[in-house]
């Protein structure tokens, strides 16, 4: 049998409950911040007559470069150019 007193066990569980409450609070904060980010992007895109998806994608690229320290890389741009060329060719074929 394990040597645990009811008082020790209850103390542990009360501590864990406090952590869960803190986690719930942070989850709510995260939801509010994400909603604010989404609203800012939407307002910016609308004011500049840009697509929201384009602003989102640009922001992801910014995060990658700015926060993760990843330098612009020639291979990345080469791959993007290949995708652009391939999709443009597909779109031209479909319109004919």
Provide a descriptive summary of the structure in words.
The protein is mainly alpha-helical. The protein has 2 domains: 1-50; 52-96. It has 3 helices and no strands. The longest helix is centred in the first third of the chain and has 43 residues, at 6-48.
Q: Quickly count the domains.
A: 2
Low-confidence stretches are none
Mean pLDDT score? 89
List the secondary-structure elements in sequence, H or E: HHH
Assign a percent range to the helix content.
over 70%
The count of helical stretches stands at 3
The major pleated sheet works out as: none
What's a quick, concise take on this entry?
It contains three helices and no strands. With 96 residues, the protein is mostly helical.
List the helices and strands and how they pair.
Blueprint: H1 6-48, H2 52-66, H3 74-95
Record keyword descriptors for this entry:
2 domains; elongated
